[in-house]
Design brief:
Elements lengths: L16 H10 L4 E6 L4 E3 L4 E3 H12 L3 E11 L6 H11 L5 E6 L4 H4 L21 E7 L4
Parallel strand pairs: 1-4
Antiparallel strand pairs: 2-3, 4-6, 5-6
């Protein structure tokens, strides 16, 4: 209710990511927004999710599901993927003109830790993000 979402329009389904994406593509479903927040690493019969090595591939899987001007909120929680490397992979996706990095969303301080509660630095440099959990809003332009 806080987000003012119409719960009557929402559909939740427990389905393998790769199977679900295929079903949505075949049904010609288009969305205004997709929140892409997969686990750090997962293997199923249909495919593999590896946020450290190929998060860009997951973005490309969901991109056809967006309306022109739609948004992908891409969340990468790989502790060992540098922020600059993640941004570089997203910038490469945008070279064709169909994805634009619109915004970096910082992780709130009450989750990242206040300066006097942080015990050590992350194992990698998350910059330009403020935390190893990297959140980016991508704007999608449809072909044609």
């Amino acid at each position: 209710m806080l987000n003012r979402l119409d719960l009557g329009k929402m559909k939740l389904a427990a389905v393998d990511f790769f199977v679900g994406i295929g079903q949505l593509k075949r049904s010609n479903s288009l969305f205004d927004m997709v929140i892409l927040d997969p686990p750090f690493f997962s293997v199923t019969e249909k495919g593999m999710v590896d946020q450290a090595k190929e998060s860009h591939r997951l973005v490309n899987k969901v991109r056809p599901l967006l309306r022109d001007g739609g948004r992908i909120v891409a969340i990468n929680n790989s502790l060992f993927l540098e922020g600059a490397e993640f941004m570089h992979s997203l910038e490469e996706l945008g070279q064709d003109g169909f994805i634009e990095i619109e915004e970096i969303i910082p992780v709130p301080e009450d989750i990242t830790g206040y300066p006097d509660t942080i015990l050590r630095s992350p194992p990698i440099d998350p910059a330009p993000f403020n935390h190893p959990t990297k959140i980016v809003v991508l704007k999608v332009k449809r072909k044609g």
